[in-house]
Design brief:
Blueprint lengths: L2 E4 L2 H27 L1 H6 L10 H7 L1 H18 L3 E4 L3 E5 L2 E4 L3 E5 L3 H4 L1 E7 L5 E7 L6 H12 L1
Antiparallel strand pairs: 1-2, 2-3, 3-4, 5-6, 6-7
Helix pairs in contact: 1-3, 1-4
Length: 153
């Protein structure tokens, strides 16, 4: 029976927080640059040209909005990804799999303290590759680790 580890709630929540912060910064900058008369007077020189923070608040909203859109797209792309340990291989993503017979060792020294373990395996070209899997990226990683250890033992 395959063991699945979906993308962690920690990662998804942090992305949502970053999106909310970007949107809040857009609203704040737009308000200060266009609607807050006191702010506009403070950062306008004698000739009526914007200076300092007013220039930043006028030019920053598109960048923050773009960042929010990019983060939302990234959130949409990763929200359904998962790590799957089935009977023959560890599937990290659609294109990346690690066969159990290619795994040389699993270093779980820091799994209890820091929440990650390292899988060392040989790739298709015969090179040794270290792959760290962290509980900040995936939930249910303990069950996947137990399954991996049982399969390669």
């Amino acid at each position: 029976m395959p063991v699945e580890a979906p993308v962690s709630k920690f990662r998804l929540t942090n992305l949502k927080i970053y999106i909310a912060v970007c949107i809040a910064l857009v609203l704040w900058c737009v308000y200060d640059a266009h609607f807050n008369e006191t702010f506009r007077e403070k950062y306008t020189d004698a000739d009526g040209n914007p200076t300092g923070w007013l220039v930043i608040n006028q030019k920053a909203p598109p960048y923050f909005a773009g960042a929010a859109v990019l983060l939302a797209v990234y959130l949409f792309v990763i929200k359904n990804k998962k790590l799957v340990a089935d009977e023959n291989e560890l599937v990290i993503s659609a294109g990346k799999t690690i066969r159990y017979d290619a795994i040389q060792r699993i270093d779980k020294t820091y799994f209890k303290k820091r929440g990650f373990f390292i899988v060392t395996y040989k790739d298709e070209r015969g090179n040794d590759v270290n792959r760290a899997l962290s509980n900040r990226k995936y939930d249910n990683l303990g069950a996947v680790l137990d399954h991996l250890v049982a399969k390669i033992s």
